[in-house]
Amino acid sequence: MITLQNVTKEYQKGSIGLDNVSLEVDKGEFAFIVGKSGSGKTTLIKLLLKELEATSGDIVVNGYHYQKMKRRQIPYLRRQIGVVFQDFRLLRDRSIYENVAFAQQVIEVPKRAMKRQVQNVLELVGLGNRLRALPDELSGGEQQRVAIARALVNHPALLLADEPTGNLDPQNAQEIMDLLVEIQKRGTTVIVVTHNKEIVNHMGKRVIALNEGAVHHDEKGGTYDI
Ligand SMILES: Nc1ncnc2c1ncn2[C@@H]1O[C@H](COP(=O)(O)OP(=O)(O)OP(=O)(O)O)[C@@H](O)[C@H]1O
């Protein structure tokens, strides 16, 4: 599903974002990415989204070869990837329904199919009865559920979550992680960047730990320690 082969990202002025990283993530896997500030987590996410270009090495995601692909293919690649951020990034003046439907309007899904799919995905995240609410009328945990629904509504093969529980209390954080595992069990590959040591150690999932741009350890059933 995801292959990185000897990937290096060097920023201008010689600053190293990633340093010769090789790793594979299988279809349907769940992996945490952990590491101190500056270890390369955001660089890795931006490379996977093709917001940044690797300086050297190869990246392949779901059959897309990043080094070879044409610029016009990028929107199709991005449809394969749902993204969730720490700060939710919802449209404040739009209802929950509209926030999720927006992702489908962009790719011109017919209205009836859209209605059904938006309802289904909001039910999956436990908000099937809040379609008309505005984001500010929801708790932080609920807002993150809306963001997850929006990321999933177009059925991406890969879900990237960048610090998804950073703004949540421990109980909501655990519930969001449980939801991400549920999504993985339904077949989506899920990658979660987090600083939440307790949750990582509690969940017993694969942990890819970065240090100074390199893979420090990569263990199934791993722990946060770096
Ligand atoms: N635009 C940039 N220009 C120059 N150097 C950069 C740039 N972005 C990141 N870096 C450097 O690349 C390295 C990795 O940064 P990155 O943002 O990927 O780390 P991170 O693990 O996501 O950190 P954090 O947990 O603080 O978000 C750091 O040394 C950083 O200073």
Automatic annotation (TrEMBL):
Alphabetical list of PANTHER family matching this protein: CELL DIVISION ATP-BINDING PROTEIN FTSE, IMPORT ATP-BINDING PROTEIN
Residues making up the signal peptide according to the UniProt record: none
Family: Belongs to the ABC transporter superfamily.
Record's subcellular location: Cell membrane
Listed GO MF terms: ATP binding; ATP hydrolysis activity; transmembrane transporter activity
Domain of life of the source: Bacteria
Matching Pfam families: ABC_tran (PF00005)
Membrane topology field: Peripheral membrane protein
Gene Ontology process terms (BP): cell division
Subunit architecture: Homodimer. Forms a membrane-associated complex with FtsX.
GO cellular component: plasma membrane
Function: Part of the ABC transporter FtsEX involved in cellular division.
The protein, known as: Cell division ATP-binding protein FtsE
SUPFAM superfamilies, sorted: P-loop containing nucleoside triphosphate hydrolases
Keyword Hydrolase found: no
InterPro entries: AAA+_ATPase (IPR003593), ABC_transporter-like_ATP-bd (IPR003439), ABC_transporter-like_CS (IPR017871), ABC_transpr_LolD-like (IPR015854), Cell_div_FtsE (IPR005286), P-loop_NTPase (IPR027417)
Chain's gene name: ftsE
Domain ABC transporter stretches: 2-226
Keywords: ATP-binding, Cell cycle, Cell division, Cell membrane, Membrane, Nucleotide-binding
